[in-house]
Amino acid sequence: MKKVLLIIGAVVAVAVLLANLGSLLVLAISVAVGYYGLRRFVMTDAVGAKIGWGVVIGIGVCISLSNLPALIGLAALAALYYMYKAWKKDKEAEKFDFTL
Questions:
Q1: Model confidence, pTM
Q2: What does the alpha-carbon distance between residue 69 and residue 26 come to, in Å, rounded to a whole number?
Q3: Separation between Cα atoms, residue 54 and residue 60, nearest integer Å
Q4: Average pLDDT per run of 10 along the chain, which is 100 residues long?
């Protein structure tokens, strides 16, 4: 019974993950743009360049905030990971079950 529930949960988690895959990719790209802009902002000394990198950081943050539903996909990915660990734990328990 536990395995059936794990399989059903995994199928639901994969469906949710696939539904949010596009927004997950855009979230990752926008976070990378924001991080790159922040790194360049800290490294530069010119005022004009700081303003430009500040704009890049703002764009990255705005795109990230618009893709917050991607957090549902991240939660589905975490749930899938924990289901995989539970599945593997059950297999290990069956392998070393030496009951008489």
A1: 0.71
A2: 11
A3: 10
A4: 85 91 93 95 94 95 91 91 87 68
